[in-house]
Specification:
Elements lengths: L7 E7 L3 E8 L5 E9 L6 E7 L2 E8 L3 H16 L4 E8 L10 E2 L2 H9 L8 H14 L4 E6 L9 H4 L5 H5 L9 H14 L1 H4 L2 E7 L3 E7 L2 E5 L20 H9 L5 H10 L2 H6 L5 H7 L2 H25 L4 E5 H6 L1 H8 L11 H5 L11 E4 L4 H16 L1
Bound molecules: adenosine-5'-diphosphate.
Length: about 400
């Protein structure tokens, strides 16, 4: 602790070319003071944006890697910290493997284990760990806490954990991990806080953003997720393919002569809404475009989600609530309307006016339909807050 007040909490969410951050004041419930991101890391013209209340700062920082991006963030945060230190840094870590579910202090031993998982999440895990190393260098006295996107699903049933491959692959870690756990953690806790009777029942949460997945919950626990071994499976996403017959991958190798790097690029960066529309990964652009290809990309997105609503309702043995979150789930009245169309057989009927007005509750059937804005950074900040309290 410094004279200026207790140390602050920084949260980091590192992608391959971006570093999102938030600063929280610790307390019984952490209070967000600022947030922002550095984009185009690895390119020649990285840019930092910082939002602090109504004040927005935009700054070109030239060529940047994760460590220099963090230094640039720190430079902008200095006035905000008013002499206070960063006491804890919380990191979104995409993969906790089989060993880590709950948030944990990132000791050298934990980091060594997480590095062994890099081959399981090659497009996310190395960048997450690079941000941890950068944060250790920048804040040597701070607690570094890892929050795992896989953690929320670790208790799901074996049938949802496995693939029908010979068992030795399961033992080697080829499992259905499921992701977006921090978002499901936040939304399910909000549901429990505001509508406990629903949270105790059968719920589907649809996290629909650039990355998209759905989770089936019984009594607040994940019993199934659309994402699997990697963050590619399940729903089509901005640039990711979603569910794909593995025979397609074999065909790409055998008939198209494509290697792992090319296929990875195709499935992670060139597919999904972008691949189908030939236009954009961005739902707003597709909604405005009016081309037949953009319309078909939206049709496929809607079709796959409706199919999963049916499948998840079956494994839940019925449905009490459907909850939307993520950039598309929270903002697109059109997508929500199309997803709920003709679902009266399930007891799910959308209230068109409430949906257009983006009310928190947008259904008037037996199945409740809700929009709960997600806040993954807050989940991370709470975990750091708890770790700081333990540390005294
Ligand atoms: P990420 O997975 O990168 O966190 P977000 O949750 O921010 O992504 O979601 C981004 C998606 O949300 C984009 O496809 C964007 O077009 C979509 N989106 C945001 N606002 C709207 C809106 N008003 N209408 C339709 N789509 C929207």
């Amino acid at each position: 602790m410094t004279d200026a007040g207790p140390g602050m909490i920084l949260t980091l969410n590192a992608g391959s070319s971006s570093l999102k951050f938030s600063v929280f004041e610790p307390g019984a419930e952490p209070r967000e003071c600022a947030h922002g991101q550095v984009e185009n890391i690895g390119g020649t013209a990285a840019e930092l944006t910082l939002t602090e209340g109504t004040r927005k700062t935009r700054l070109g920082i030239g060529r940047a890697h994760h460590q220099s991006a963090l230094q640039a963030i720190l430079g902008q945060l200095a006035p905000l910290l008013k002499g206070r230190t960063i006491a804890g840094v919380g990191h979104r870590i995409v993969h906790g493997g089989t060993a880590h579910a709950a948030p944990e202090v990132l000791t050298p031993k934990v980091m060594a284990y997480l590095a062994t998982l890099e081959p399981l999440a090659p497009l996310h895990q190395p960048h997450n760990l690079a941000a941890v190393r950068a944060a250790i260098a920048a804040f040597p006295g701070a607690r570094q806490v890892g929050c795992f996107d896989t953690g929320f699903h670790r208790g799901h049933p074996w049938e949802n954990d496995t693939f029908a491959l010979p068992r030795r692959y399961y033992d080697k870690g080829v499992r259905r991990y499921g992701f977006h756990g921090l978002s499901y953690d936040y939304v399910s806790h909000e549901l429990a806080r505001t509508r406990p009777e629903l949270a105790a029942g059968r719920v589907i949460i649809a996290h629909l953003g650039n990355g998209a997945s759905m989770c089936a919950l019984r009594n607040g626990n994940s019993i199934g997720s659309t994402m699997g071994f990697s963050a590619l499976d399940g729903l089509p996403m901005g640039t990711r393919c979603g569910q794909l017959d593995p025979g397609v991958v074999l065909w790409l190798m055998q008939s198209e002569g494509m290697g792992a790097v090319e296929i990875s690029n195709l499935l992670y960066r060139e597919s999904g809404l972008k691949g189908l529309s030939g236009l954009s990964h961005d739902m707003r652009t597709l909604e405005a475009a009016g081309t037949p290809e953009a319309a078909q990309a939206i049709d496929y997105f809607v079709f796959r989600i409706r199919r999963e609503i049916g499948a998840m309702t079956a494994i839940l043995g019925g449905l009490d609530a459907l909850v939307f979150c993520g950039g598309i789930g929270e903002n697109s009245a059109m997508i929500r309307a199309r997803l709920c169309e003709g679902m009266d057989w399930l007891g799910l009927t959308l209230d068109a006016a409430a949906n257009e007005a983006r009310a928190p509750e947008i259904g008037h059937g037996r199945v409740r339909v809700l929009v709960i804005p997600t806040d993954e950074e807050r989940v991370i900040a709470r975990a750091v807050n708890a770790a700081l309290q333990v540390a005294g």
